[in-house]
């Protein structure tokens, strides 16, 4: 018979991998088994079986694992309602890769508007394998390859807990690292281009900063939807990546006269849309690169900039902020549909840049902010 584990109130629950995670129980009971299951996913971290001999003294776990476990428990412990939902609708994922997004460095530094409760484990874009599912989860089963657009416990970890409706099947066409490069980059790019920028086939778009996670996603999506795509990068290697991923033309944003080259390429007409990754540097110049009624979509910004509002009047152009965090459920579904269609059709192929072991996350955070030249999505490998 399966091993049984004492619950917090002295009740005994089953903790075998088959039934504790899948069975229908009352919320309180479920939580205990869910926790036990989560704990059991780490060797030496689970509870003991009352019938078993006392366990031998265990070596202390490496820090990342202890932290992941604590984060998972914290996520599960917020309120009993949340715990109940998680237990029924949550999944536990063995993380194989987690994308690094610049916003995680802003949040970690404490200078960002959103300040998470502590302890905090960053990371939303996980790819991995389902380890267990809540009682009401039917879309996934243990062993499925998946990627996420959010986690409840944090993705910079060996295991992560996520709500099932933020988890998607990972096509066999894509590696785990590619799976970890999908959610924030492609959802943001789609949102900027279509939900906020109202891009149409035949229009021209300048992806200002096209060599990183969001930029490459924007190049691939814009090309697939019939736009004329111009992209910039700061290195030769980055420009080649941009050209290989849908851009009709690439420019080097570290070259003194690259803005003139862009205008020449458009026959002095300018572009309909700019997807801007560094607006604190480029916004004033962007207004001169737009065509009549053009729009700048502010995706990335790391500080203030002075612009002349008159430059918007000349062309009746507009500047619009983009925030993925404000997406509605309907918008989210549209993004998901577009992304899954793109993977299925084969045009959506995330480009993985530097990969770091989880232990080197501090270096990854340094490098993404002080990049010497992006060439794809930065990924952590636990
Ligand atoms: N608004 C939202 O909801 C949202 C969502 C996701 C991301 N973001 C933001 O969008 C930005 C890009 O994110 P990411 O994940 O793509 O980051 P990333 O992978 O680090 O890429 C950064 C990009 O910015 C480019 N860049 C550097 N200097 C530039 C310049 N002077 N002009 C134009 N581009 C320049 C880089 O090009 P080189 O390295 O080749 O020079 C690279 O292509 C970040 O600021 C991020 O915080 C916003």
Automatic annotation (TrEMBL):
Record carries keyword Hydrolase: no
Coiled-coil region(s): none
Keywords: Acetylation, Cytoplasm, NADP, Oxidoreductase, RNA-binding
Catalytic reaction equation(s): 2 a quinone + NADPH + H(+) = 2 a 1,4-benzosemiquinone + NADP(+)
Enoyl reductase (ER) domain sequence ranges: 74-380
Pfam families: ADH_N (PF08240), ADH_zinc_N (PF00107)
InterPro entries: ADH-like_C, ADH-like_N, ER, GroES-like_sf, NAD(P)-bd_dom_sf, Quin_OxRdtase/zeta-crystal_CS, Zinc-ADH_QOR/CCCR
Keyword NADP: yes
Subunit structure of this chain's protein: Homotetramer.
PANTHER family associated with the record: QUINONE OXIDOREDUCTASE
Family per similarity comment: Belongs to the zinc-containing alcohol dehydrogenase family. Quinone oxidoreductase subfamily.
Protein name (Swiss-Prot/TrEMBL): Quinone oxidoreductase
Species, as recorded: Gallus gallus
Lineage: Eukaryota, Metazoa, Chordata, Craniata, Vertebrata
Primary gene name: CRYZ
């Amino acid at each position: 018979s399966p091993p049984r584990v004492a619950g917090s109130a002295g009740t005994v629950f089953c903790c075998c991998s088959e039934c504790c995670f899948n069975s229908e129980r009352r919320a309180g009971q479920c939580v205990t088994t869910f926790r036990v299951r989560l704990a059991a996913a780490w060797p030496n971290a689970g509870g003991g079986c009352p019938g078993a001999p006392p366990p031998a003294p265990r070596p202390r776990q490496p820090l990342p694992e202890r932290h992941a476990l604590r984060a998972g428990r914290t996520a599960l412990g917020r309120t009993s309602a949340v715990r109940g939902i998680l237990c029924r609708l949550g999944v536990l994922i063995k993380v194989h890769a987690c994308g690094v997004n610049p916003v995680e460095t802003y949040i970690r530094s404490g200078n960002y508007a959103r300040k998470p409760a502590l302890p905090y484990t960053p990371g939303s874009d996980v790819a991995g394998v389902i380890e267990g599912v809540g009682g009401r989860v039917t879309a996934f089963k243990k062993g499925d390859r998946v990627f996420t657009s959010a986690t409840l416990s944090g993705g910079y970890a060996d295991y992560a807990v996520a709500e099932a409706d933020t988890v998607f099947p990972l096509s066999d066409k894509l590696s785990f690292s590619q799976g970890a490069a999908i959610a924030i980059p492609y959802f943001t790019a789609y949102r900027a281009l279509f939900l906020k920028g109202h891009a149409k086939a035949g229009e021209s778009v300048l992806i200002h900063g096209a060599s990183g996670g969001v930029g490459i996603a924007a190049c691939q999506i814009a090309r697939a939807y019939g736009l004329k795509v111009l992209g910039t990068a700061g290195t030769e290697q980055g420009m080649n990546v941009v050209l290989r991923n849908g851009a009709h033309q690439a420019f080097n944003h570290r070259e003194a006269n690259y803005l003139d080259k862009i205008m020449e390429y458009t026959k002095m007409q300018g572009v309909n849309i700019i997807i801007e990754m560094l607006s604190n540097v480029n916004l004033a110049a962007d207004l001169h690169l737009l065509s009549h009624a053009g729009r700048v979509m502010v995706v990335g910004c790391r500080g203030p900039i002075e612009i002349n509002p008159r430059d918007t009047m000349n062309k009746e152009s507009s500047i619009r902020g983009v925030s993925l965090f404000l997406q509605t459920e309907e918008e989210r579904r549209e993004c998901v549909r577009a992304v899954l269609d793109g993977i299925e059709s084969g045009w959506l192929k995330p480009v993985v840049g530097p990969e770091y072991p989880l232990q080197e996350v501090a270096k990854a955070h340094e490098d993404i902010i002080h990049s010497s030249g992006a060439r794809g999505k930065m990924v952590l490998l636990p």
